[in-house]
Specification:
Strand 11 (about 150-155) and strand 12 (about 160-165) form a beta hairpin. It contains one helix and twelve strands. It is an all-beta fold and about 170 residues long. The chain has two domains: about 5-90, RimM (Elongation Factor Tu (Ef-tu), domain 3, Beta Barrel), CATH 2.40.30; about 100-165, PRC-barrel domain (SH3 type barrels, Roll). The strands form two sheets. A six-stranded antiparallel beta barrel has the order 1-2-5-4-3-6. A six-stranded mixed β-sheet has the order 10-9-8-7-12-11, with no helix packed on it.
Length: about 170
């Protein structure tokens, strides 16, 4: 499995017991969805390695306590601390309306109610306090905040996102 075919689930943060159990911090608003996992992919030096799970349960609401098969000692568990966890994209629940996953909108066209066609989404910058659409407009990069108030429609069939950006925002880039 390649990373491009997966989504980031979280990161192993520490050992839980002397029997090799681990705690993972999940990157999700709904951690309870992942209590019954059978397996996950663990990132080892850029390679995703499947790990099968004997049992897992929520621990203090945001952490997932994981008991991997074949990880039976503190030493085995120590090797997994700080490892990132991934799952196949097919395990993501479908979103509707104006909700979307960042990976699914790459290549979508952005149209503004006032400006018209802005361009094609080439990426999402989520390293800032507010995530931004990275849009290619005739070779120039346009950055528009991903804000519920701006997004008016997400049409997955035609791959068009309709927005209502504040006046002058798009003009700054063009």
């Amino acid at each position: 499995m390649r990373k491009e075919e997966c989504f980031y689930l979280g990161k192993i943060v520490r050992k839980f017991s002397f029997k090799g159990e681990l705690l993972a911090k999940l990157d999700t608003d709904e951690p309870e969805m992942y209590e019954n996992l059978e397996s996950v992919f663990v990132d080892f030096n850029g390679n995703l390695v499947p790990f099968f799970i004997h049992s897992c349960q929520l621990h203090k609401s945001t952490l997932l306590r994981i008991d991997f098969e074949d990880v039976n000692t503190e030493e085995d568990a120590e090797d997994l601390i700080n490892a990132e966890l991934f799952l196949p994209l097919s395990m993501l629940p479908p979103l509707e309306g104006t909700q979307f996953y960042y990976h699914e909108i790459i290549g979508f066209t952005v149209k503004d109610i006032s400006f018209g066609e802005v361009g094609t989404i080439t990426g999402v910058n989520d390293n800032t306090s507010q995530a931004l659409f990275e849009i290619d407009h005739k070779g120039k990069e346009v950055l528009i905040p991903i804000n519920d108030d701006f997004i008016k429609e997400v049409d997955r069939t035609t791959k068009i996102i309709t927005i209502d950006a504040p006046e002058g925002l798009i003009d700054i880039y063009i």
